[in-house]
Specification:
123 residues, 3 helices, alpha+beta, 5-stranded antiparallel beta sheet
């Protein structure tokens, strides 16, 4: 019985992090079906956002987009008072630059949110 309860708990927890439950798309990119699950560096970033207990944690999310024909990932936020920088990564997890510093926002196209916390306050 304990094994069944433990398995049910793991299933519930794993489903709570599924993008389908949040209405966000699962987009094939970087030669994988689900970048959040299949790119270890991106999964680590998602887990860091999930596990963050700070008051501003609900403001952070991850987007996928295109920049000069390349798939990119934007570690973004909607925190008006944070004064944060917005890093941009390629499929390998290499930092390409910062949004509106090395990478101009008008060169980034087809932006879609692929991960946000269930308690996200962003629109």
């Amino acid at each position: 019985m304990k094994k069944i309860l433990a398995a049910a708990f793991v299933l519930i927890i794993s489903q709570s992090c599924n993008n389908d439950d949040e209405g966000l798309p699962i987009i094939s990119a970087c030669d994988v079906t689900n970048p959040i699950e299949n790119l270890p560096w991106l999964k680590t970033q998602v887990n860091e956002i999930i596990e963050n207990k700070s008051d501003v944690a609900p403001f952070f999310f991850i987007e996928i987009a295109e920049y000069r024909g390349e798939t990119i990932f934007i570690s973004n936020n909607c925190c008006a008072i944070c004064g944060t920088i917005v890093p941009i990564y390629n499929c390998s997890g290499d930092l390409l630059g910062l949004l509106n510093d090395e990478i101009k926002i008008n060169e980034v196209i087809n932006v879609q949110t692929i991960f946000s916390r269930p308690d996200s306050t962003c629109q």
